[in-house]
Amino acid sequence: MGGALSLNWLREDGRGRSYVSDWAAEIGGSVDRTTGLFSTVGRVVWLRLENCQLGHPWTGRGAMSSSSVATAGGAALRRDGKKLVRSPSGLRMVPEHRAFGSPFGLEEPQWVPDKECPRCMQCDIKFDFITRKHHCRRCGKCFCDKCCSKKVPLPRMCFVDPVRQCAECVLVSQKEMEFYDKQLKVLMNGATFCVTIGTSEKSELLVCRLSNNQRYLFLDGEIHYEIEIAQISTVQILTEGFTPGGGNTRATGMLLQYKEPGAQDVTQMKFTASEDSNSNKKQSTTWLAAMHKAAKLLYESRDQ
Ligand SMILES: [Zn+2]
Ligand SMILES: [Zn+2]
């Protein structure tokens, strides 16, 4: 454990100075003194303490900075600065700056105070010394162990590990994992579209993809455009199909409205699935379906 190491590294934040080893012990991990890697015991998170050098005080402010955070497999290398924070709900890897968070992120809920819930909010069993309270990390409500026993990943709240959730929230989170496992990858892989900007008569063939930090749509062709997801006001997926219920509809395009920083008016972009080959068309259709899901999460994140 970190406490056993005799490191000279110092960190400094609003609460004063502390030794890195103490800090690591405090949040339940340790620092490797040769590599400078921080690890939490039994977890797959590694945090390189780039601002720290052996024998030198770390004079940066705030939490430890990391410009390269990777899972143990090394697959998910991210360049954005992240920091590890411990909340009552668990360990979270959050962006250094709030503005750099994922547009699909959700805030942690306020926990229902213990004194306000004498009984399980699902099965109504009375809490006592044997029947203990547990808070669902997603909704913050109070349950008995039986009604809140599952631990499920919750990437939208930046949790490092799967966290305890009630039955209702488990369903929602599992559905979301589908988005993270499948649709998010589709969006990042990109697809080709004919894009018309504003009232222009001309359309351009552009490859559209979601940036790795989930904060931008990159459009690449003759020119490179970046649309910040936070600036998008509406996403409308255009479909074709014959059943009124929408069972057989197929996504053919997308209308995007966004406001450029400093601009007064909303800019509209029209994306039409590329027709130049069948495989391209299929890729574009899949991408649009993924974008449809992404838009739902996006609106939900904004409404919270
Ligand atoms: Zn219960
Ligand atoms: Zn819940």
UniProtKB/TrEMBL annotation:
Record carries keyword Cell division: no
Keywords in alphabetical order: Metal-binding, Zinc, Zinc-finger
Molecular functions (GO terms): zinc ion binding
UniProt domain FYVE-type: residue ranges: 114-174
CDD domains: FYVE_ZF21 (cd15727)
InterPro entries the record matches: FYVE-type_Zinc_Finger, ZFYVE21_C, ZFYVE21_C_sf, Znf_FYVE, Znf_FYVE-rel, Znf_FYVE_PHD, Znf_RING/FYVE/PHD
Protein name according to UniProt: Zinc finger FYVE-type containing 21
Phylogenetic classification of the source organism: Eukaryota, Metazoa, Chordata, Craniata, Vertebrata
